[in-house]
Amino acid sequence: MNEFEKDVQSRRNDFLDSAVGFVVAFGFFATIFIIAQVIEFFGTR
User: Which whole-number Å values give the CA distances from 37 to 19, 23, 24, 26, 32, in the listed order?
Assistant: First the structure.
């Protein structure tokens, strides 16, 4: 075991961090998509 395995900076579960990252990224792209759909909807009128 090397020195970095003995002195861990964060003992949090990696799944939680990756899940939060996925949700944030998905929310960002969903927001962009919704804005584009709204602009397209009102632009055709």
Answer: 27, 21, 20, 16, 9
